[in-house]
Amino acid sequence: MNKTFNNKAWWMVLPVFLVVAFNALIPLMTVVNYSVQETFGNNEFFWSGTTWFQQLLENDQIMDSLGRQIIFTALALFIQIPLGLAIALCMPRKGPWVSVCLVLMALPLLVPWNVVGSMWNIMALPDIGLLGRGINALGIPYNYTRDPVAAWFTVVLMDVWHWTSLVVLLCYAGLVSIPDAYYQAAKIDGARPWAVFRYIQLPKLKHVLTIAILLRFMDSFMIYTEVIVLTGGGPGSATKFLSIDLVQKALGGFDLGPAAAFSIVYFLIILLASWLFYTLMMRNEAN
Amino acid sequence: MSKRFLVPIVYIIFLMLPIYWLVNMSFKTTNEIINRFSLYPHEFTLDSYRTIFTDPSWYGAYINSITYVALNTVLSVALALPAAYAFSRYRFLGDKHLFFWLLSNRMAPPAVFVLPFIQLYSSVGLFDTPLAVAFAHMLFNIPLAVWILEGFMSGVPKELDETAYVDGYSFPKFFVKIFIPTISAGIGVAAFFCFMFSWVEMLLAKNLTSVAAKPIVAAMTKTSSASGYELGLLAAAGVLTLIPGAIVVYFVRNYIAKGFALGRV
Amino acid sequence: MAKITINNLRHSYMPEPKRDEDFALKRVHLDWADGGAYALLGPSGCGKTTLLNLISGLLHPSEGKILFDGRDVSNETPERRNIAQVFQFPVIYDTMTVYDNLAFPLRNRKVDEAEIKKRVTAIAAMLELTATLSKRASGLTADGKQKISLGRGLVRSDVNVIMFDEPLTVIDPHLKWQLRSKLKELQHRIKRTMIYVTHDQTEALTFADQVVVMNNGEIVQTGTPIELFEKPKHIFVGHFIGSPGMNVMPCVIKGGKAFVNGHEVAADNAASSNGSSRLELGIRPEFVTFAEKGLPVNVVKVSDIGRYRVVDTRLGENSVKLIVPEGAAIPEGKAHLAFDKAHTQIYSDGWLAGEAR
Known about the structure:
The complex is a heterotrimer of chains A (about 290), B (about 260) and C (about 350). Chain B is an all-alpha fold and about 260 residues long. Chain B has helices at about 5-25, 30-35, 45-55, 55-90, 95-105, 110-125, 130-155, 160-165, 170-180, 185-200, 205, 215-220, 230-250, 255-260, and one strand at about 90. Chain B is globular. In chain C, strand 7 (about 160-165), helix 6 and strand 8 (about 195-200) form a beta-alpha-beta unit. Chain C is globular. At the A-B interface, strand 1, helix 1, helix 3, helix 4 and helix 5 of A face helix 1, helix 4, strand 1, helix 5 and helix 6 of B.
């Protein structure tokens, strides 16, 4: 669309700008401030340079959290994106069942995150939970509060339950927007289902898949509430991810400096990864 | 029916199982929860729900949650509307940078903002009010609402605006009487997303409140120790949090597919 | 390549059609020779696209049969029927190059690469796509993309029929004419059966040897462009083809002679019409002239169309239009008209009187 140049449009953007700036800039400035200073209470601060950032890199505990976080996010993406795509491909395109399917699938996305945690907590209890009791009945010892493997399995399964629908809905939206003529032409050209997927559906889904991967990356990288309710980061620190670590440091320990440095690095990792991924996808487009 | 429909059917069953288990628990007596594993409530009871509806610390928490979610949704969409219009219709100094800066806030982990938000909202006297939570959630919801609305607005031809001006409409009159009804679907979708995020988020909601404005998500943590005694109550509280979501999703059911693609497909 | 026979074909989109109106396609018979150029012409919703999709196999008929060279293909898939189709909006495989797009149908059929190369190169030359062969297909303009869609049909040597579903809809006006002549030229060169669906009379009349005019799910007339113009079998054809369309006015027949508004008019088939049904007289504006005496009319409007003028006159209540060449005098107010008898026809209930339907 041809847009006219008009600086008066700023007046329309101003309220949004002010609210977001108030919410984003002041806290970020606070964080940056803390990250380069040392405090001993009494609101007295001393310049400490990059000490906190150096400590961060040497802190094994945080590095372990980062490692777990990366594994968790990778698992979430590798399971949810293909699974969501597969489900979307199998869904009916029209008919009365479409709405029913979509509404039921959207439901997990609207459950408060702590309720997601509670729900899976109850579900996975070894004695009275459907899942826990079921797995134990199969002869596999399962107790997510004691066994790290079981805890990881439960956390990943919970995340699949919680978020795969987002991928399904995005892919489904992309699929229904492909005109019938493409499928008809493919039929006439003698394309097998695999070729239809590879040369028609996948290219047309590129945009929504980019959005899906970005959203899933960001949200899984920030996961906090569901895990804290389900496992509390345990057993031990087996499921302690970055946000859990950060909140413990910021609210529990009152180590403001290190927590602030942590926050900045954390935010930058997400921004950088998202930017890199987005740029790569878009450059691919240009070629 | 073709065999491939089995895939979504199995998936939906998988989605429904934990929800069923939650509902199942919420109708059981404490005695039944602790002493036996049962697929449906053998001693059906509404006790848990009765507790929630009679104890002000429970139902008050629901009211608090709904208050800040509603405030947040209304304010986010209302502020985002003119901004999205500006982005979709005009070029102006720094427009692209501003847009990306707004979106980058969606990438901020709430955990990063917890402590600074507590300090910020305490210093302006909003701590422990629904308004604080509503404002805090706006950091994430305004960029999203602007993004969604901009997508929908760009799909409306500019000729609509021009025709209205030729017909003698002033800008505010055009915006309210013609433009807003035209993109009502987009507004519905944006409001849905604002509602969704604000309703499900807990970290900020819990930490920006203490007593007076305690939201349901925080009220539930007192039972989340999973000690068995409180499981029925926890389940009932959980079931009640599903209802607003189910109602909202039912209203936007025809726009879900398009909405999740943010109007851009 | 094949001779196409369509036998008693009916189609409805409803599960249990009962009344005639439930059918999108009411009852169609057609015989198309091998290697001909055919057009299906009619307004939107007349059933022409339904008929096309039935022939290509994207739809299966409710009743009746479709035969390719005498073989019943009514329930076969598009692939088995060996047809090609160009759609209204260009369908290309975005991620592939132009070469790969053209090779796609052959690769799906496991043709060997050397043969593919030979055929793709030949077809690309024919369609003037050689220069773009190694480019991404998504970067081409709409007409280039439409050529690729066509090319994917042409590369297959065994295609029974190539079908076009309003293929010029998204093409810029100045390129439409080019692409149309290209199509016509290709048809002459390769002698494949081609079926062209359109609502644009110019496209249909310039492309096809035989035009099938459809309305309300029925075939109204099949014929060469000249036949459609000179002897419309139904007043719908008279209206739909020609610009301006045929003049139609109510008439009565007395003693084998036609009268309009009380004036006698000589008509080609006046003697063969019976007096019982709704009768109308039709004549194209091209065959009406001003005369010294004849039908008395009032001239109400003259429109200049460039090479000729269209004059609108009133004969009583009825409008009669005529075409007057540039430079000829046009009387003002009262005037007289003469109708060319050989091209004046009587229509009974809309259909040409005295002809078998």
